[in-house]
């Protein structure tokens, strides 16, 4: 029993990371039609920015700075690189591919290829006893952050004008323009939000794994992609459900099966979902 | 230019800026052989991307299948090289057929993500070293016991060079034959407008699957050659980074053109290796090959959307003007002469 | 003339769909844009709106429209009611309307006067509305803002006869305030609403003039539209 609780909470912690990355990816893809390979870079940028000032500023301001820098990176990438290629989706993907390669190399040249020890709040290193299981407190940090982000995102999408524009744009971008709305502002906004959430994910991943490295974003990104596809492109709640499914499945199968079986089973889940429901659990079908 | 590729191993010429030793030194020959292998891999990938319009992010899987397949059969099971290759390449084709038949149920970006996910499994499995087969993160050196003598020892590097050149030739012959065949036109038709092909009564799904399997087979073959040239297999060739670099090669050279991917692959592999060697001596991020290549790639997407091949055709009027008597061979890109 | 189109040409997916369309839309009344299925009526509207790349000349309210962003043209008063409604299925009726509002005092009075039903259905998701109700939402959302010209694409497509009459009545009322460029297959509706008519054929303008003249000429309607005004298909 205690093992199950520990595994479940650890799986949910992982799910929280996936969700933070995938929700931004999913919105960016759903609205702007861009598969953003540079999303992993936003994650690393946020983590390194926070790491750099964490000694001198203290952890909380460092976290805020990391999120802000990642958000700014997201906005900048949209404005400078993505916008000029408006509607040319393949080129946009290619540019984000180039950016992910060059960006990680740039981080490597500045901070080195080796992992850095990432600080965490003291209480996150403690252990909580639940139903007989000794659960590291950082799990709750991740899960709590993801739930807050989910609620915040849903409220934003539901109750604000921009949220309305984004929901409509995910359904039919052209029609939003045909109502006299400059949908490109919403693109910049989702890139900024995606960047901020990725930055937060990068920082939390740093706390969870106790270290950061330039390539960390890229490896988390692949599972986030899977979460996005399973959840349905453009759907935040779909991404949440898929993240929970993927995180739990991966954790349990990795523990009870052979090493690596969890990762394989996640991809098997992806294949199954695609065969049964090509558009994912929720959300619209991918444009051809 | 093919002639240059053929006579090169006999040349003792030194090109100090470009290569470290004379052209026929083992080091230079191996570097060139790797460039040739990547030229072939890039063109094979371009069959999918440039011709059929399928942006696969999982091509590395089939390269890895070839490399690890042959490496494992030779090094662990003591098979002879040729038998191992004869089993591995069809196995890569079968793998491509299986995974392609699932992935092609989606289209567009979802297809890209699914291929990426499949390849990621390969990468993970290889890294985990199941049953001690793959050597995990260290990779698996190719045991020379099962290899024909002509492929072992430094003095025989030239034979690896020939092998790489032969691989590139095979890929070029196959892809260009497809370009000329009705299949090639149908594939590009598919890329431009799937509905039109469906109207012709052809199944887009089957055509795409055919292209996927062909490209996977060529990748498997390339993986076999790669393992021979570098003397083993390492997890890097299964990584998404390898696929991304194949995309970069195809786009840099000019996706969908006759020679674009070949030129792109050759140049990319060359720059990658040379920059890695020069790394320390260059300032800041320029010491990172991927920074330079990634940036070049982004610039190419904006400023030379057709890749090097399109730069060539833009220069074509100039070239005509300079050499008025040259008969127009209908071949737009002067860079193609470079291979 | 609120809209002047000259030599409009559009290529899509390798085919030359419009090859020099030319016509004007008057400052008042309804101009019907007619032609057989697939001739390029929708494409013409989308080209005017900047949704598909086009060459040639389009003057909206005297200013060049080609090359301008869609949302700017719309803000200048070009209202668009697309073919197949294109309401946002996942949004409620109220949200669909709220999204369209871009002026401080939107004309909800007019909208609820024309479509009282929408008031009761404010909380319903637009995807669950009937075709006729969706059409009401699509028309309502352009009427919330002031317009200089409406582009209305097949508003009666797929609707029951009674609903067709209701939609036509609404458009008739709207046309007293703002000119309409109307794509319409139902010739009874055209006869009731249109003052002028333009017929496209093979990517070009094949006929332009008074709607009444076109409809009273049985040969012209048959050869241009493939239908007799009274009989069935050609
Ligand atoms: N994106 C596209 N790519 C290729 N062809 C297109 C595209 N959009 C439209 N077409 C073609 O252009 C032609 C004109 O289409 P359009 O929708 O403008 O016709 P229409 O006159 O509105 O027809 P209908 O009366 O059926 O609504 C059609 O043959 C259509 O197949
Ligand atoms: Mg139409």
UniProtKB/TrEMBL annotation, chain A:
<feature type="transmembrane region" description="Helical">
    <location>
        <begin position="6"/>
        <end position="27"/>
    </location>
</feature>
<feature type="transmembrane region" description="Helical">
    <location>
        <begin position="140"/>
        <end position="159"/>
    </location>
</feature>
<keyword id="KW-0472">Membrane</keyword>
<dbReference type="InterPro" id="IPR052157">
    <property type="entry name" value="BCAA_transport_permease"/>
</dbReference>
<protein>
    <submittedName>
        <fullName>Branched-chain amino acid transport system permease protein</fullName>
    </submittedName>
</protein>
<keyword id="KW-1003">Cell membrane</keyword>
<feature type="transmembrane region" description="Helical">
    <location>
        <begin position="59"/>
        <end position="81"/>
    </location>
</feature>
<dbReference type="Pfam" id="PF02653">
    <property type="entry name" value="BPD_transp_2"/>
</dbReference>
<feature type="transmembrane region" description="Helical">
    <location>
        <begin position="34"/>
        <end position="53"/>
    </location>
</feature>
<dbReference type="GO" id="GO:0022857">
    <property type="term" value="F:transmembrane transporter activity"/>
</dbReference>
<feature type="transmembrane region" description="Helical">
    <location>
        <begin position="186"/>
        <end position="209"/>
    </location>
</feature>
<comment type="similarity">
    <text>Belongs to the binding-protein-dependent transport system permease family. LivHM subfamily.</text>
</comment>
<keyword id="KW-0812">Transmembrane</keyword>
<dbReference type="GO" id="GO:0005886">
    <property type="term" value="C:plasma membrane"/>
</dbReference>
<dbReference type="InterPro" id="IPR001851">
    <property type="entry name" value="ABC_transp_permease"/>
</dbReference>
<feature type="transmembrane region" description="Helical">
    <location>
        <begin position="93"/>
        <end position="111"/>
    </location>
</feature>
<keyword id="KW-0029">Amino-acid transport</keyword>
<keyword id="KW-0813">Transport</keyword>
<keyword id="KW-1133">Transmembrane helix</keyword>
<dbReference type="GO" id="GO:0006865">
    <property type="term" value="P:amino acid transport"/>
</dbReference>
<feature type="transmembrane region" description="Helical">
    <location>
        <begin position="255"/>
        <end position="276"/>
    </location>
</feature>
<feature type="transmembrane region" description="Helical">
    <location>
        <begin position="221"/>
        <end position="249"/>
    </location>
</feature>
From TrEMBL, chain C:
<dbReference type="InterPro" id="IPR027417">
    <property type="entry name" value="P-loop_NTPase"/>
</dbReference>
<comment type="similarity">
    <text>Belongs to the ABC transporter superfamily.</text>
</comment>
<dbReference type="InterPro" id="IPR003439">
    <property type="entry name" value="ABC_transporter-like_ATP-bd"/>
</dbReference>
<dbReference type="InterPro" id="IPR003593">
    <property type="entry name" value="AAA+_ATPase"/>
</dbReference>
<dbReference type="GO" id="GO:0016887">
    <property type="term" value="F:ATP hydrolysis activity"/>
</dbReference>
<feature type="domain" description="ABC transporter">
    <location>
        <begin position="3"/>
        <end position="227"/>
    </location>
</feature>
<keyword id="KW-0029">Amino-acid transport</keyword>
<keyword id="KW-0067">ATP-binding</keyword>
<dbReference type="InterPro" id="IPR052156">
    <property type="entry name" value="BCAA_Transport_ATP-bd_LivF"/>
</dbReference>
<keyword id="KW-0813">Transport</keyword>
<keyword id="KW-0547">Nucleotide-binding</keyword>
<dbReference type="InterPro" id="IPR017871">
    <property type="entry name" value="ABC_transporter-like_CS"/>
</dbReference>
<dbReference type="GO" id="GO:0005524">
    <property type="term" value="F:ATP binding"/>
</dbReference>
<protein>
    <submittedName>
        <fullName>Branched-chain amino acid transport system ATP-binding protein</fullName>
    </submittedName>
</protein>
<dbReference type="Pfam" id="PF00005">
    <property type="entry name" value="ABC_tran"/>
</dbReference>
<dbReference type="GO" id="GO:0015807">
    <property type="term" value="P:L-amino acid transport"/>
</dbReference>
<dbReference type="GO" id="GO:0015658">
    <property type="term" value="F:branched-chain amino acid transmembrane transporter activity"/>
</dbReference>
